[in-house]
Specification:
Elements: E1 3-10, H1 14-25, E2 30-34, H2 47-52, H3 54-72, H4 88-112, E3 116-119, E4 121-125, E5 129-133, E6 139-149, E7 153-155, E8 168-169, H5 171-174, E9 183-187, H6 191-202, E10 206-211, H7 222-234, E11 238-241, E12 244-250, E13 255-261, E14 264-270, E15 272-275, E16 279-281, E17 314-316, H8 327-341, E18 355-357, E19 362-367, H9 370-375, E20 380-386, H10 391-396, E21 402-408, E22 414-421, H11 424-436, H12 441-445, H13 455-465, E23 478-480
Parallel strand pairs: 1-2, 1-6, 2-3, 6-17, 8-15, 9-10, 9-15, 10-11
Antiparallel strand pairs: 4-5, 5-6, 7-16, 12-13, 13-14, 18-19, 19-22, 20-21, 20-23, 21-22
Helix pairs in contact: 1-8, 3-4, 3-6
GO cellular component, one term: cytoplasm
Enzyme class: oxidoreductase
Binding site for NAD(+): 188-195, 211, 278
Length: 483
């Protein structure tokens, strides 16, 4: 006989574990099935994000930036360091400690909320039953009133650059190098490629990123993308746009990549190659053959605005459904679904989900870009302000970049916030709140911000929408009419 629960969640990543916790808080009996195992082959919660994604990558980004600062910038602050050395094993050990602390924290939360953690691979059966195949191949069946699919995603592979055990790796492998490769190639200059490339560039690699798109960071506001490209190029990242990889071969001590761009055919030889061309939803094998779960042509589960699938009582959230593959997006969907199951009104505002690239400088945005506003025929005004004119940024020696605010030309309502610079992953929350609350640029301009602080750049950008920034001599005010 199947074990019965109110809710069974398949997947213990950010979307799944948050959904499980919120369901438990709302008084439901919950089980969470997850097949992740750590480097010691032990079951562990947290999914890709906590184990080989968001968290370990940010740990390495932080550590590598500290190393670079110690080598190149501390002397300018009057701190002279002699013989700065890289201890890569210690850096990796720090990454592992951070990861272990957070994954064990999720397990503690499960115990606190009396959530049944079921290690193994979950497969949806008919009538809201879930078959679990344990790591010992033993099978059991769980039955539920509601099932939440949160099985996450995996790195996309490409035939022209097949992975190898050592030389050609995906994002997971690039977080675990045992030495700094003298020459590193990265296929893909998107979020993952840039973050990984930044880590190893700061640690000493010569990094070449091959990007098939002709425009850098197509999802980012054009002005912000151009500024970011300038900063990354100055750091020594070699970003080659319009570069379409045609093939690769692994030699004894290197990898040779053949690619083509507007100037013809080229060959690149590197010591290691990272394939970072995106991610695909983990929906293969998620359901039994007689379960008619509706998927789209890319393998994503089809859902409505509240993440209901075509199957009664079955929901899907996170990376397996439409929208950006972001942990915080999946978390909010998990909370929404839990509330909906409990009979409460709930929704996610997909128009104001923030996105961040954790390079240095950081890139962050929320809302609409200039390009989108133009394509939709929406009249708007632009206000921007550089970090170079901000006292706190100067004190930090972090003056690259700017904050840009887009406001409706008629109503003055904020439509988009875009930024590149220091700590933009934190500053973007100001923009998200402005968008969520329907603020005008005047509302922001009339708000008092602490001095000196980086947030003043956001304030000045809001002032600039109306042509009244204080700390630039000649403000530039731009607008575009509808149509």
């Amino acid at each position: 006989m199947a074990d019965r629960f109110d809710v069974v969640v398949i997947g213990g990543g950010p979307a799944g574990y948050v959904a499980a916790i919120r369901c438990a808080q709302l008084g439901m009996r919950v089980a969470c099935v997850d097949n992740w195992r750590d480097g010691k082959d032990q079951p562990v919660l947290g999914g890709t994000c906590l184990n080989v994604g968001c968290i370990p990558s940010k740990a390495l980004l932080e550590s590598s930036e500290l190393y670079a600062l110690a080598r190149t910038q501390m002397a300018g602050h009057g701190v002279r360091l002699a013989g700065v050395e890289l201890d890569l094993p210690a850096m990796m050990a720090h990454k592992e400690r951070v990861t272990r602390d957070l994954t064990s924290g999720v397990a503690t939360l499960f115990r606190a909320h009396d959530i049944a953690w079921v290690p193994g691979t979950g497969r949806l059966l008919a009538h809201r039953q879930v078959e679990v195949t344990g790591h010992d191949d033993a099978k059991r069946v769980l039955a539920a009133e509601h099932v939440i699919l949160a099985s996450g995603s995996s790195p996309t592979s490409i035939g022209v650059a097949p992975l190898s055990a050592d030389r050609v790796v995906d994002s997971t492998g690039a977080l675990a190098f045992d030495s700094v490769p003298p020459r590193l190639g990265v296929i893909g200059a998107g979020v993952i490629g840039l973050e990984l490339g930044s880590v190893w560039r700061r640690l000493g690699s010569e990094v070449v990123l091959l990007e098939a798109q002709e425009r850098f960071l197509t999802m980012v506001d054009g002005q912000i993308a151009r500024e970011a490209m300038k900063q990354f190029t100055a750091q020594g990242l070699d970003i080659r746009l319009g570069a379409r990889v045609r093939g690769s071969r692994t030699e004894t001590k290197s990898v040779v990549v053949d690619y083509q761009d507007a100037n013809g055919d080229h060959t690149l030889e590197v010591d290691r190659l990272v394939v970072a061309v995106g991610r695909r939803p983990n929906t293969r094998g998620l359901c039994a053959e007689d379960v008619t779960l509706l998927l789209d042509e890319w393998g994503f589960v089809h859902v409505d605005e509240q993440c209901r699938t075509n199957l009664p009582g079955v929901y899907a959230i996170g990376d397996v459904v439409r929208g950006p593959m972001l942990a915080h997006k999946g978390m909010e969907e998990g909370i929404m679904v839990a509330e909906a199951i409990a009979g409460h009104a709930a929704q996610v505002n997909y128009e104001v989900i923030p996105s961040v690239i954790y390079t240095a400088p950081e890139i962050a945005w929320a809302g609409k870009t200039e390009e989108r506003l133009k394509s939709e025929g929406i009249g708007y005004r632009v206000g921007s302000f550089p970090f170079a004119a901000n006292g706190r940024a100067k004190a930090m020696s972090a003056t690259a970049g700017l904050v840009k605010i887009l406001a409706d030309a008629e109503t003055d309502r904020v439509l988009g916030v875009h930024m590149v610079g220091p700590h933009c992953s934190e500053l973007i929350a100001l923009g998200v709140m402005a968008l969520e609350f329907g603020a005008s640029s005047e509302d922001l301009a009339l708000t008092i911000f602490a001095h000196p602080s980086l947030s003043e750049v956001f304030h000045e950008a809001a002032l600039a929408v109306g042509g009244q920034p204080i700390h630039v001599a000649r403000p530039v005010r731009r607008s575009a009419r509808a149509g």
